[in-house]
Amino acid sequence: MHGDKLGRVLGWPTANLWLGRHLEPARGVYAVTVALPEGREVKGVANIGRRPTLGGDPQTRLEVHLFDFSGDLYGQEIRVRLVNFLRADATFAGLEELKAAIAQDAEDARRVLGLEARGP
Description:
This protein has 120 residues and is an alpha+beta fold. It has two helices and five strands; from the N terminus they run H-E-E-E-E-E-H. It is 18% helix and 31% strand.
């Protein structure tokens, strides 16, 4: 699905998926692995929630940032595996606080997944 590209603006581009009628995991941030259409597996960080800092969404969405990946996944099927729950969903005072939290989440996910810490 197409998002509003805010992740890209904040420096953390994401693949966005509606969860639909699937069983909904706990809302929050996860370290993940993602199987890409060509079979390659990429590690990343994901948020499952309704974007409370941005005014909220009526439906839960899964937003996944893939580490060390550049490419276009629009219209392609990916499989996301939740590896480790990092923290509960939270509301932040503004975009700068949200951006700082995303950076910390990415660092935590990299550590859990055995990757070197660094930015987007």
